[in-house]
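Memo to structure team: turn this sequence into structure tokens by end of day. - J.P.
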Amino acid sequence: MINCFDVVSMVIEDANNRFTPLWKVDNEKHDILKQYCEYMDKLSTDFNGMSFDVEIDEIQMTIKIVLECTDIIIEQPTHYFYELAKRTNKFGFSVSEDGNLNISFVFPSIWERV
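Reply from structure team:
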């Protein structure tokens, strides 16, 4: 199974190489992002996730995580999906090239100016 934080970590490492020495990772924000990834992993398990795609907006410094899955059914208004969505800058749904569902979450930056 693909782990969200493993994918995120690879993209962050690449971004850090480009952002250094002007920006550095705020460890507290990094730890919070790791917690978000744990919820993304739960979503992936619940909704038969197939892949994670991660992008860094180098202007806004935000982190976009997209989960591709077959479908999403939320039966309870207290589902943790809503708590995760509250912590994003924005979230949305789209259809992948294969006709699957993409759930995208844009999380706040984890970087701070040096």
